[in-house]
Amino acid sequence: MNQMARIDTEAEAQMANAIRALAMDAVEAAKSGHPGAPMGMADVATVLFNRFIRIDPADDGWPDRDRFVMSAGHGSMLVYAINHMLGYDDMGLDQLRNFRQLGARTAGHPEYGHAKGIETTTGPLGQGVATAVGMALAERMMNARFGDDLVDHRTYAICGDGCLMEGISHEAIDFAGHQRLGRLILLWDDNGITIDGHTDLSTSTDQRARFAAAGWHVQAVDGHDREAVAAAIQAAQQDERPSLIACKTVIGFGAPNKQGSHEVHGAPLGADEIAAARTHLGWPHAPFEIPTNILDSWRAVSARGAEARSAWRKRLDSSPDNSRFNATLAAPDAVALRAAIRDYTAKLATERPKVATRKASEMALEVVNAVLPNTVGGSADLTGSNNTRTKGMAAVTPTDRSGRYIHYGIREHAMAAIMNGIALHGGLIPYGGTFLAFSDYSRPAIRLGALMGVPVVHVMTHDSIGLGEDGPTHQPVEHVAALRAIPNLMVFRPADAVETAEAWEIALTAAATPSVLCLSRQNLPAVRLEGGDENLTRLGAYVLRETKGARDVTLIATGSEVEIALAAADLLAAQGVRAAVVSAPCFELFAERAPSEREQVLGRAPRIGIEALIRQGWDGLMLRPGDAFIGMTGFGASAPAPALYRHFGITAERAADLANQLIQGGK
Amino acid sequence: MNQMARIDTEAEAQMANAIRALAMDAVEAAKSGHPGAPMGMADVATVLFNRFIRIDPADDGWPDRDRFVMSAGHGSMLVYAINHMLGYDDMGLDQLRNFRQLGARTAGHPEYGHAKGIETTTGPLGQGVATAVGMALAERMMNARFGDDLVDHRTYAICGDGCLMEGISHEAIDFAGHQRLGRLILLWDDNGITIDGHTDLSTSTDQRARFAAAGWHVQAVDGHDREAVAAAIQAAQQDERPSLIACKTVIGFGAPNKQGSHEVHGAPLGADEIAAARTHLGWPHAPFEIPTNILDSWRAVSARGAEARSAWRKRLDSSPDNSRFNATLAAPDAVALRAAIRDYTAKLATERPKVATRKASEMALEVVNAVLPNTVGGSADLTGSNNTRTKGMAAVTPTDRSGRYIHYGIREHAMAAIMNGIALHGGLIPYGGTFLAFSDYSRPAIRLGALMGVPVVHVMTHDSIGLGEDGPTHQPVEHVAALRAIPNLMVFRPADAVETAEAWEIALTAAATPSVLCLSRQNLPAVRLEGGDENLTRLGAYVLRETKGARDVTLIATGSEVEIALAAADLLAAQGVRAAVVSAPCFELFAERAPSEREQVLGRAPRIGIEALIRQGWDGLMLRPGDAFIGMTGFGASAPAPALYRHFGITAERAADLANQLIQGGK
User: Considering only CA atoms, which of A150, A94, A91, A143 is closest in space to residue A117?
Assistant: First the structure.
């Protein structure tokens, strides 16, 4: 891949200056943005693209393209400048001129889906590094399945000091080093500057030693010596370990009076300094003007990629794996999955197993994983608790990537980001488990997945005080509300094995929405006693038990509390009170339904919500003023689950009492 | 401090076995818990306590005590066993027998405030390490203020593999290494086992090299060789760098058939294995029975501590710094603060500055920091954006800890945990800043602070789409709702400089509740135009503008949207519509008020909530069915703030239109 022999180094210097010019001009036009990183890393990025990267702007989805991640997302103008010059058809000069303006593709930070050639959304620091690790892992896993002919690319990421200070970077580099992800090359913009000033204000870690300790191949170069950068990338490509290249750079390189200072990090340079930079760099061209010969040099990169893609296409067309490869990249087979889930839930409705929903999840996964050969399970070191590993799922190891199960280690945050990376790479469908309380650890990556619309499945077990003795540090109380708050995220809390299977079906066939499955530690009885062709969980909430005659009260519950609602309805029935029971496994799907449909499900009678969590999120959607809620108002406690349910008053008896009070009060 | 010369090594061996016996017996009685870590680390902990630690169970709040943190919180029985034998009066055998039962002090994971001698709540892995870093920093900062006579103690923490895999550990060790916190000694339970099996399933990091890269003093010992452990602790005490002691241990040491395996990590050993362990360890005593001579040995540790405390007390009594020292440990001077805030807000009501609330926060801090000499500011590398540094605040550096400002680096998560540690240590009042969107990064530590009731102040600026061009990765949309969901956390979103100052007053005088201040990037007009003796923010929500005559509509807003509500009321007034405006800076405080008081504020007229965030949390407390809300329903976008407010329809015009619709609809 190395094109060093025929490099025109003078042209390459101008290619880099073109990035610098576009970055400072666009930031100036926006009166907002970050010129420092694009100007500092222009040489490194130019060498990377000019001599190594294999992409084709004419087909931004080409599966075997190299992946490029700008983890230092505030340096977005580096990406936009390059993508403009490479000739992406959605990145015209108008986009650069409208940097950071409403409706432009050139958002403040690079956003996946907003423009071609942006492999992942970055900005929150460290996320790009971990996501790139997921991409590099997916590449090797796909390679193990399809061989070098079809899968043989690299993942390059640029990160800054901030990315390396964030905790997620530790989780990611530790994981990548362990998995020996040699196809990953991390280019560190080692400029010694953060927003507050010099990095020595807050860190004195020897980053090179740190990466070496994690099993990485480490090099250091002058980031403005393009031949040295090229030699380092070439050496990195040859090494079987993931590579760090520490690129010593001057932030804002080219702005003669401000470079090397935190002043160039995140503010426009100003007209005077831009003029000085033009002189200093020998760049006499007008703002946003790129001379044809320099544009041609960039377009040559694209031409090289187009050639590679064409050759790859031929290999795919003649490959015996052709249809299997296309199938793995296509959307999951929803029809086959529906059939399998239908048969499975019909059987469940007969067998009515009393199992924890985490166990029910494993049972559903046995069905799912048989139908979808490209699911990839995993856990943050809670495999036996999360029940994420089905029969025959071999572990993905540094020496054999053909397996389907990933030991993410005690790294909830990186797990979520790595799963985003796997899903973004394409070809594999990742799901991974931890305790629901630790969704707080993975939350920044869950959010980014929701923003990007990446359909990852987060398996979160031990979903309430029902986990018992581990106590309030491990007991989710507010986590479901906090997850329901994230836009474009489906939060499921299924009540039994049937709903759990249905939730899996919805999660795995979602086109652009990640899901969280909140699952119980404790056993729960079957509540859906009839098989059916319809996935009722897709309704968000539905009437599980209707009354004969007008309802006196409606009990609405989720997950483990549906059992309590049913028991309360029994108690009330014995008292001659007609209580309907609504199961509400997914608030987001319910919210999407027409108000009249929702009203029909919830009824006009007094309502009681039951969920062993806080009330936030119930009012408005489920409850009206005067309706009641049984749940938690503060943190849990350490004790066996039945004692906790009694202690916090989350019982059928209390629900029945409250129902009688509401009914009396309404009379 | 080292007592090596007169150690009875045979007695010490039995002291360690006593921990093992109590741990396995208590877990067995609870039928739940983690015997592996207490049994594996019993030798290390015994040496630490027997020969080094200086605490006095008769005065668990003695300021100059050593701090001990069990970061591997699942090993809680190690703490409870030790504290029982040391003679803490709240840790009788009944507590051990009721391990993990309702109402017992012996929660599943150690909980601050549940029992004496527990310095911080642990369980979520890595938190203890970072919190210990905060304690160690606070010790040096207090030492810089009061000298060796009054402040001269150490912080010891035990951590497991899980703690070191979590990202927060990176942030914490990097920070501790940079700050050269030589009083911190971290004892790593290097047993090579995690829940899923051997650590080599998921990590191959050279931890010793990793810590060395971060500037730590590193040693490795056989964790069952007590003399080696003692020598290592002694060497660690001599070194100026923070110390890691890698203690090679056998998990579940003493259980002959199960030790060294992940089976002993988190499940009772069972009667047979416990019997075998008793034989293997030469421990013939009945369950929960500790021979008097062994108990005496443990009590000698306490006696040594009592002696040290007594000597320290004499030094304090005769110290010229006596009253200053006591004052810094006491609760903040609420009377002085009230007077200063009253004067300041009275001035503001006259001057009516149009400033961003992040700037208003800095202005308030100038007042606050003058009144409270022991506040300690900081930021996760966003000092100029968070406005957390007031005049004359010198940085805390590795060579001078007398300053009041901490450069936390780009480490939001560790910052929150370190602040918890500083607050738990006592003597200093920490606050620290980042962007509100990154509260997701620090969330696990914010939650732990709320669970513990540690009054830390989290300054979170750039609190909505109002931050503009940085786009949706940086724009909080759901974060305020997600923070409001955390129990025992006050979330403030002040509307102007007066409310910002009032929020600071409440946050700093809270006895056992942490706070989050959500502050705008953009300038906001003064909305409180009259000075007053009362802190109205303490009401949670209050009528900012009342109507003459009955209200036609009530507009309820927070923070930057109060300006919009006022403008809408003006528009409506011009149309002859009477609109009241309610400012609601703190939902949690409002929720505490009587329903009738809340009703009086919110009125019976139709209501419109205005907050440039999602609606979750508004219904029930603020809004009724039929009321309206103007805010966000999904992620933001990248553009200048005014364009975004127009784009998302968060405008006075829309509020006025909606008001008219509601009023028409109600007629």
Answer: A91
